[in-house]
Amino acid sequence: MEVNVKNSNNIISKVYKDSIAEEIGIEVGDLLIAVNDQKVHDIIEYKFLISDEYIELEIQKRDGEVYIYEIEKDFDEELGIEFVNPIIDKAKSCRNKCIFCFIDQLPKGMRKTLYFKDDDSRLSFLQGNFITLTNMSEEDIQNIIKYRISPINISVHTTNPELRTKMINNKRAGKLLETMKRLADAQIEMNCQIVLCPGYNDKEELDRTLSDLSSLYPYVNSVAIVPVGVTRYRENLAKLDIFDYETANQTIDQVHRLQDKYLKELNTRFAFLSDEFYIIAKRPLLNYDEYEGFLQFEDGVGMICKQGTEIVKYLETIEENYDIKKTVSIATGSSAYEFICDMADNIMKKFKNIKINVYKIVNDYFGHTITVSGLITATDIVKQLDGEDLGEALYITRSMLKGDEEVFLDDITLEQLEEKLNIKVIPCENEGKIFVDKIIN
Q1: Which is nearest to 202 in space by CA: 154, 238, 247?
Q2: Which of 92, 112, 229, 379 could pair with 120 as two cysteines, CB 3.0-4.6 Å apart?
Q3: Phi and psi of 425, rounded to 5°?
Q4: Domains within the chain, CATH numbers bracketed
Q5: How sure is the predictor about 94, in pLDDT bands with cuts at 50, 70 and 90?
Q6: pLDDT, mean of residues 19-39
């Protein structure tokens, strides 16, 4: 019997060692037909159906035979399988035309998956993607509540209905607060993001947005505020200004005043600015404890503070080792360059025979207004480091690569970059201990 193409997303791609699935004989390539006689349409439905202590799985083996597996397990215990498609169903695309959309500012020839705009609550739950709530049906909203899809990450930008409709270019955009109040009433936890655009949703509009969102605390758990990114590929798009020294300082002062207010009223600073604002304004970041657990770390909020503190503390716990002799290099974006130089100096002070060269990669590919390390391409790395004495290895941040593949934004693989530079290239997570260990080992 051939696998039903319509159900091909239900094909099992991985079975974890020592899992329930491995124990009962489920294999890679098997097809999940149903759980408790119910067809599985997406990953949220699957997780909801397998949460009980007793379940029946209907599995089709690769030879076409169908088996029913009766399973007794702990409540909410996972089976230990993954599917060809992480969400099983087809991802829902975004129909918005946001004035600040980064995908609309991409040149041709990049990684194909970058051109797909998703706006799917399931990816928000599973992978931390941000959604606008504008591309959801009433059934989608009811499923979030029914299946307890929490937390979800919401691209807010503004709570002003008219302004949000204008910025997102979707007539449903103005219903945001109404939908968020429904989710809060259902005790669904939400983390929010604001892409701040000078002249649009900053200043008084930012005050209004944060006031509205804070009224939904604690279900709106935190808000990250990031500056709009503008590439050199904005032909026929709305004119957007970027933050400069003066406007970044004004925004920091405004948000710090609001943080003091929320700290008194809610016992949390609630809204946090990304590191880019402080770098543009040439001001120190918040202290480690003031980031309150780094709730919006993946949005670049407190990333430098966290990694820097971890590196300094870890270096205090390890012994100097004069036997380690090497020269290595680090490639980083403009915004993190001074920080990486400081961290490299700290490591070299501890390990006297290690030399670390730090190279600032200017973003020629997207334009010099893009300064974050996560948007550096292999093309720029090769162009700017070719011929340099890089030593034994070149270190980069893993954020330059696609999460599950070793490929850069410009569709050049890590292996291809190594061939072009004739050097080992080592991706590092944004964790202090890992960063140090990879350099000294």
Answers
A1: 247
A2: 92
A3: -110, 125
A4: 5-83 (2.30.42.10), 103-300 (3.80.30.10), 307-440 (3.40.50)
A5: low
A6: 90
User: What is the Cα 400 distance to its own chain's centre?
Assistant: 12
> Strand pairing partners for 222?
191
Q: Which two tokens stand for residue 429?
A: 């997570």
Place of tokens 């999460």: 403
- Pair of tokens at residue 22: 């491995």
Residue 125 has pLDDT above 70, yes or no: no
Can you say whether the dihedral through the CA atoms of 198, 180, 254, 283 is positive or negative? Answer: negative
- 380-423 confidence digits (pLDDT tens): 999 999 999 999 999 999 999 976 679 998 989 999 999 999 99
Whole-model pTM? 0.81
How do residues 56-84 score in pLDDT, each as one tens digit? 999 999 888 999 999 998 887 889 888 87
